[in-house]
Amino acid sequence: MKRGTARVIAAVYKAKFKEPSKGPKVGELQRLVLEDLRISASYMKCYRAKQQAVFDLRGPDDDSYTKLAEYLYMLKLANPGTIADIESEVDKGGVERFVYMFLSFGASIRGFKKLRLVLVVDGTHLGGKFKGVLLTASGRDGNFQVFSCKGLARMVTAAACAHRMRDYKNYCDKIKAANNDCAIYLGKIGTAHWSRTYFKGDRYNIMTSNIAEQLNNALVEGRSSPIVELLMFIQEMMTRWFSARRKKSERHRGLMTVEVDKVMTKSMALMSGSKINSVSSWSSQVVGKYGGYDSVILDQKKCSCKYFDHMKIPCGHAMLAADNLGVPYDTLVGHWYKTEAWRETYAD
Asked: I need a labelling partner for 107 at 20 to 30 A (CA). Which of 139, 140, 231, 310 fits?
């Protein structure tokens, strides 16, 4: 079997993978040259070959920083409303060095005005020569998309998502019985930080860790790229997302977004066998098929189950009350959940 040099392997890599971020990892490269070229190469030889190939394709990582200001200038010209800034400092030797930069696309700034006012901030570590951290800020659109269990974990999630105080306390009692140390830990970090019941603002159905994880996964391929290539990767990703969601929202014919329609349909299905009693002009009592009851005040968009209050989406009880009074469902949902707002989010 032939033995290949790092130079030969690097040449093959460059010919086959024009975009370094999409190329194979070192172990996969070692297998590829063996299978495709019948060449035996050590792991370190493949590592050096890949490093050389990436260097040849991209040039030194340092060069990317010299191109950054020009790239951001052109980016702002091509994307009106985009905000970008670079912070640098001069070291003892009189050399200007990059510290950090800020970038927000104009389309994102305009689209965020149509979202629920929840901002998720998260950091992800970068690869490459200079490492660093990419700090991202994101939200969730009216279709529940990023604008990037078992046992104890399931009980903690249920407690965090509980709408009513009695449900929250019930889950907390179960957590304490299962693992008292976990209950103590949750109490120390502050219930307002992790539970919907004690949270003073509106968190809707937004689980911040989920959004951060989705965005981090989307950025994996670009995180080891030089800074300009990383920004180009992000720009291309955002363009794809906006284009796909713009088309999806334009095709949708319902008054509410696709995902909100699904949530409301599921909530209504759970009301099978329930009965509605009118209390006053806007107040109703819904009696479930097992005898439990909930009170709805439709003009205030409130229900004793608290789902309507927190989510700004009518619960099954509220929809029964609306049917009884002849009130259209679309007048009860938060404006962010309407198809019109969804389309406006991605209009640019």
From this structure: 310
